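Lab notebook, design round three. We kept the backbone fixed and only want residue identities now. Task for the bench partner: fill in a sequence for the structure below.
Input structure tokens:
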């Protein structure tokens, strides 16, 4: 078991630091000179990281975002566990949570790795609907307005067809079925396939899936292609008959 060090942070002090940064000022600290007894006001650099002892650390960014981090060693290597944000988690609660995590660490646990694994499991259980929402927020929002509009229609169509399915269990057959049941034009089907490829490429980049289920799928090989060919052939024929055949 590790030796415990004295707690050093103060709840009022934390509030002042956050308020100062949000007002465009530097956080400060009163420092008493041990020799002269005089008190000096020190400006603290940002980003700020101040220890409360036993690895519990208060962090504050230049943007005013604050959080609690527990620093410890596991297998001889330094590790960090983000406990949560401040002020949602206050000083007393952060200390309580840190003590609980330290018990697990003293028993040979590695809470940072356990948290990462739990998060990965939760992400793998995402539905296609959740993946599409994440794609809209992280990727689609950065594209042009016209791209957002055109891809947005395809994403809506995709969500209505396979939105409830778990992304880790989506197969190429599910994508083919979605395309064949869309019953739309070739260009719209192609846009739907492109949107699906991008969404699942996003999932692969987040390591939620190993292989993009859209890989290798070609519209020309699907039964919907026959329907589209007929559509393009019959339009001029109908126009011809409308001109030469009287009512």
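Proposed sequence:
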């Amino acid at each position: 078991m590790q030796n415990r060090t004295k707690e050093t942070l103060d709840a009022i002090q934390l509030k002042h630091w956050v308020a100062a940064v949000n007002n465009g000022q530097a956080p400060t600290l009163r420092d008493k000179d041990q020799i002269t007894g005089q008190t000096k006001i020190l400006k603290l650099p940002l980003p700020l990281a101040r220890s409360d002892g036993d690895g519990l650390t208060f962090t504050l960014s230049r943007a005013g975002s604050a959080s609690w981090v527990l620093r410890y060693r596991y297998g001889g290597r330094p590790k960090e566990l983000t406990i949560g944000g401040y002020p949602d988690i206050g000083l007393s609660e952060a200390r309580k949570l840190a003590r609980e995590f330290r018990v697990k660490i003293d028993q040979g646990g590695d809470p940072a790795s356990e948290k990462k694994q739990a998060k990965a499991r939760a992400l793998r259980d995402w539905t296609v609907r959740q993946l599409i929402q994440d794609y809209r927020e992280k990727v689609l929002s950065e594209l042009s307005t016209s791209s957002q509009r055109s891809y947005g229609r395809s994403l809506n169509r995709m969500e209505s067809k396979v939105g409830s399915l778990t992304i880790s269990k989506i197969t190429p057959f599910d994508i083919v079925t979605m395309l064949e049941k869309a019953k739309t034009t070739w260009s719209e089907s192609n846009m739907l396939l492109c949107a699906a490829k991008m969404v699942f490429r996003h999932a692969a980049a987040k390591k939620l899936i190993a292989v993009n289920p859209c890989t290798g799928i070609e519209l020309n090989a699907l039964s919907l292609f026959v329907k589209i060919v007929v559509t393009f052939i019959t339009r001029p024929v109908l126009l011809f008959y409308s001109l030469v055949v009287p009512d």
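Keep this in mind before ordering anything: The chain has a mean pLDDT of 86.
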